[in-house]
Amino acid sequence: MSGDFLPYGRQSIGDDDIAEVAAALRSDFLTTGPLVEKFEHALAEATGAAHAVVCNSGTAALHLAALAAELKEGDAAVVPALTFLATANAVRMTGAEVIFADVDADTGLLTPETLRDALARGKASGRKIRAVLPVHLNGQVCDMAALKNSAPEGTVFIEDSCHALGEDRIGATENSFAACFSFHPVKAIATAEGGAITTRDPKAAERMRALRSHGMIREPAAFTERELAFDGNAPNPWYYEMQEIGWNYRLPDVLCALGISQLKKLPGFVRRRRELAALYDKALAPFAPLLKPVPHGKHPHGWHLYAVLIDFKTLGTTRAKFMNALRAEGIGSQVHYLPVSSQPYYRERYGAQTLPGADAYYARCLSLPLFPSMRDEDVSRVTAALEKLVRR
Asked: Is position 187 annotated as part of the catalytic site?
């Protein structure tokens, strides 16, 4: 692909994936069928989780986890400012409020110090903070044990692991209530659109499965309206109940077929991402401190993104000009992310936020091409273009 445009990320779909999807299309089920449960079992095994619940996006996964954690109006949750919109939006979708936390200026990660600061600010404002949503930004894993030890006992932790699938034990929820994943095409595996939640809590998993399908319950033992539900002692075959409102967050069988096939390749995908990251690390070392990789030695890393920090001011340019110059060389890049606290909705709701770590990270960050089908020479091509821009 060395002569083509290099996006910052893309799916890796093979003939075997296509064959599995084609087989699902020829089956009796296009929507919810046996492949949903099969995908869930495979995902639980791959992550070390007790339970996995698949749904139609990473956003839906975050929302379902927040609902299962009983977040509601009158509550609040801490969300790092450096993340995609969905992490904060999922909290608001429950009616709860968001307390934005600052992050480490070099890694973009929530730290025990920035968490404690957010908890103190929330307490001072009179907020009842019930949950924390750490984000494993770029694939680099937060120190979950340290974060948990920095919060009051009983605080619910929901990991935004949408960048980190494939890293050892991510999803096992050893220090959290749940972990949420995305299967968007640029993520570790792709189902076109899709997501999942893993948890150790069987009741939470059962509830999320109901909530992803309009809140419908079909288990006779859970029915509350006996006269409607039963003919004598036998349940009516058509009957179902909605005991709380739910959503249409189902992931269809045809996409689960793709997910099952992709999941088999996950170890190879992650291994290749690590190889490419190592090539970048070596090639970019001479560019420091003007351009340097986001530090990644301290924590495990799923390598969803290869992010660098660039001193655009010293280079005498702007990030927009830098990105456009890369694009002129056939190389895509992206910014992950504009602090969510800066979005108009949240500025109007909570006022302007002073979060120096998030602002410093955002001002310098840029994500370079990284995906399993890249060749070694593609990394050389990217670094050659970067060298030209730095020297210019």
From this structure: yes
